[in-house]
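ok so for the tutorial part 2 we go from a plain amino acid sequence to predicted structure tokens. step 1 is just haveing the sequence, like this:
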Amino acid sequence: MGVWARWCSEAPSKSGFSSTRKVSGREIAAITTAWAGTIGCRRCGDCFLPDSTRRRRRSWIGKSSASARVSADSGDAAPVLSGQTRSVHGEGGVRPERTVPGVHRWLSEALPATLTLAWDAPQTFREVRLVFDTGLHRELTFTLCDALARRLMWGLAQPETVRDYVIEACLGGTWVPLCEVTGNFLRQRVHRFPADVTASALRVRVLATNGDLKARICEVRVYA
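step 2 — the prediction. this is what the tokens look like for a chain of 224 residues:
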């Protein structure tokens, strides 16, 4: 039986999607497999498919042979390099054999807080991608039920999401600001710099969130 599906093609329309058409279950399986094979690429951004984690890509300095080390002034920073950007295990989640349990995010103990990615030797890059926690555990759906609608946070920045932050690079032993962001409410932010940056370390200083008292970052990706 055919089903209706919409996906982002290699040549998307102005709206970002191909036209909607009736496709078979076999075609959807092929599309899903293709997506699984591109997990971790720049084009796909933040996504999750069972049985898949982001592939190690040559352009991703953070998990290349450069041997990145991640640390933080508080909390366990290691989960930001787990290759998965959300927790999907447990009751109501993905089957245990199809995912990796864990928080898959850095959670600081207080604000402000700093997350640092360092390399054994200086690395050259031009792009930094951050994935923040946007409360994916929270129900968010269309509903005609007034009682349920009152519990939803439509049109509001999720409290866990980092609001104000600064990205800095260590150049010759000195921390130099690359960009500063205020008022963020997005889950994924891509920062493309006008020129190559060669640094021995990169850090994200979280100054404030949209309500939560702790900083939360799911992933840091650095591209040459």
